[in-house]
Amino acid sequence: MSGTTTAAALRRRAAGAGANRWVVLVVLCVSLLLVAVDATVLHVAVPAVTEDLKPGGIELLWIVDVYPLVCASLLILFGTLGDRVGRRRVLLLGYALFGVASGLAALADNAQVLIVARALLGVGGAMIMPATLSILRQVFPDRRERALAIGIWSAVAAVGAAVGPLLGGFLLEHFWWGSVFLVNIPLMLVSLPVGRLLLPESKGDGEGPWDVVGALMAAIGLFGMVLGVKRLGGGESVGSLLTVLPLVVGAALLVAFVRRQRRRAHPLVDLRMFARPAFSTSVGCIVLAMLALVGLELIAAQYLQLVLGLSPLETGLRLLPLTFAAMAAGLAGARMLRRFGPRRMVCFGFCLTAFAVVLLTALGRTDDCALMLTGFVLLGFGLETTLFGAYESMLSEAPQEQAGGAAAIGETSYQLGAGIGIALLGTVMNAAYAPGLSGVPGVPEAASSSAGHSLGEAYEVAAQLGGVAGVALRHAARDAFVHGLHVTLLVSAGLLLLGAVMALRLPRVMQCEDAGAVEVPAPRDAAESRVSV
Fold first, then answer.
1. 20-199 topology per CATH
2. Is the pLDDT assigned to residue 177 strictly greater than 60?
3. For residue 2, what are the CA distances in angstroms to 6, 44, 251, 516?
4. Which CATH class is domain 269-510?
């Protein structure tokens, strides 16, 4: 047996019995599934929520967007809290909060209550997510095994992305829209006792104070920036004080946050990790990939339902090939990474995704199943290839003693990309859609202005007008939405090609270096056990 093989075997034995670490992986994947399902389950319910609660354009964006934004804002805060009081403890508290917030969302009778409930779900998600990658990094010190574990982990994320719209569509066929949130409660009730029984407790070194002020600065700064973008996307003037002020304050707080972290002896985010090209490039690739994926999924769900007239369940089924392709890419990711290396793998993923996005610009007012199937399969495989290579490179580049911080940064970039993607691509979509509704024959200017907020609202206005004017408005709105979809797809393709260029800074080959030993206690000792780094 070679020295490298012997070292890998010793690391695996030091990490505990083989069954134990793979059981831990299963529990972590279930945790991820809980969060991933909630991130997408609302997408197919947007038209039903719009019809029932009648939110404004900005409120509708917040209903969908507040969950990933709150989650992204608080990941570092709860990641560092887990280092102090125990990651498993924070994880289980997150399960409980997730269940309570799900019940509140299901019973919401207006847009404001639903926004608050989605924000609380984001808090719960922020408590759950950092534990998955940080524990995975510690439990699998050998890079070859870790690559396989990340492949399984990312495949589960793809399953959650698919189960969300499909489950949401099924529930909407039989129940009201609030039922899409109730599915979280049984998952939480199972996850709480299983997590307490099987997951080992783990803590960091606990050095330095917990910088709550810095975490709040980052959260408020992020919200300020996105609020400004949302107002611009809603048609507000660039010179409006309520648009400029959030942008300026948000940017100032984020700059102050970075300066504060550089001065502190024990920062929330160790910015020195970003000096490593592979780490910073991987984070940027995750942001760009998620920016394209989540925004496109939301718009695609509206296209399938409002333009093609598919039911919510049919919409979920149409999006299923994307997820199957992503699952295949995740499971094959470890082998591809060893053969091609991070640089070629991530670059290829971005280019394949960009090609798929451009291919989908051929979609129109009529249903083209073959084109949609081809585009979604290529899109899912390309994006998952990108995300897998970026996540694995980021975790492997970070020192093992900083695994928690690296995991929080990775999950923050994931959620940040998702939140900004919805806001940015939603803004592009609205900017391309609204002008197409001006000057429709027989439609009053006030009605055209209301119809310009969203396609769902345009259909409502058309129904109120009735007659020839209503039919004309409905057709114009549908054509304008398809045009906006094409513009949004082209913008996404440009961002993806930018990601392909960025990926050229990643390492050419997958380097399997020796890692330190990690102790994973047996499940029966989970109550008093601890992962030592």
1. Growth Hormone; Chain: A; (1.20.1250)
2. yes
3. 6, 53, 53, 18
4. mainly alpha
